[in-house]
Amino acid sequence: MKKYIIVFTVFLGFVVSLKAQNSAKDYFNNGAHLYTYSKLQPAKEIVNEGLSNFPNDIYLNALKKKIEEEQEKQNKDNKNKDKEEGENDKKDDKNKEKDDKKDQGEDNKDEKGEGKDDEKGDPKKNDEKKDEEKKQDQKPRPSQLSPEQMKQLLEAMNNEENKTQKKLNAEKAKGRQVKQEKDW
């Protein structure tokens, strides 16, 4: 009986060790699966592990190259986005500085020029002046649509909606074909 138990445990250990070893195809499939879901770092780790066990496998080498290309592409995209965001931040900072300078200049003019009337304060007038100047200074950004573009977009959408409604109404008017049962 002891002999069977020993043989069984050795056999079980052998089976477990075989299951633990993956083939090159397994490494490739696992890496490719992660790659398709854009999980590049874990995919690269699995492929590198597979290449350490199977260095001459064509598929693993090709997948490694593909993953590295994709990572380089993402790095370039991230750098471009960072540059664009940096430029936008600089522009925003410059605009804020200009607005601050204008506000300070207006405050100085108000203090010097109008005297007693402003000290009593008519905050509504000051707010209205600031709002008007902000509206004049605001230029449409490339990402924003002008009012004309918005109107054109709305008209195009309405036209498309009208076309689809006409098609639906035409289909409803035709009706469905009903199979008639023969009486004979």
Structural features:
mainly alpha, 184 residues, 7 helices
In short:
Helix content is 82%, strand content 0%. It has 184 residues and is mostly helical.
Span of the ends, CA to CA: 84 Å
The secondary structure category is mainly alpha
Strand coverage percent: under 5%
How do the SSEs run, as a string of H and E? Answer: HHHHHHH
Describe the sheet with the most strands. Answer: none
Total of DSSP H or I helical runs spanning 4+ residues:
7
Rough shape? flat
What are the segments in which pLDDT stays under 50 over at least 5 consecutive residues?
Answer: 115-120
What percent of residues adopt helix (DSSP H or I)?
A: over 70%
Number of strands: 0
Determine the mean pLDDT: 76
- Radius of gyration of CA atoms, rounded to a whole number: 36 Å
Verbal overview:
The protein has 184 residues and is mostly helical. 82% of the residues lie in helices and 0% in strands. It has 7 helices and no strands. It is flat, with a radius of gyration of 36 Å.
